[in-house]
Write a structure and sequence with these properties.
Elements (H helix, E strand, L loop, with lengths): L1 E6 L2 E7 L4 H14 L25 E5 L5 E5 L2
Antiparallel strand pairs: 1-2, 1-3, 3-4
Length: 76
């Protein structure tokens, strides 16, 4: 996965990492089972951050994750 972060429309950082979806799902399922929960069809798993950048109140942050799509948030 190639992750590219922009803040307020300006590039802020990027990183590339190998992600094994089956391994991520297995680990998430084990952690959830330990607290009496389980994965359901359609659940999404967020496995941590590939890029860490400082943000401030009012910033609009966009994480572009290639074929996985984008996540967008405004920091309050």
């Amino acid at each position: 996965v190639e992750a590219e972060i922009s803040i307020n429309g300006s590039p802020a950082g990027s990183n590339r990492a190998h992600v094994d979806p089956a391994e991520a799902a297995r680990i998430a399922a084990e952690l959830l089972a330990a607290v009496g929960e389980r994965l359901e069809p359609g659940d999404r798993i967020i496995c941590g951050s590939l890029v860490q950048v400082p943000v401030a109140p009012g910033d609009e942050v966009v994480a572009a994750l290639g074929e996985l799509g984008e996540a967008r948030v405004r920091v309050r």
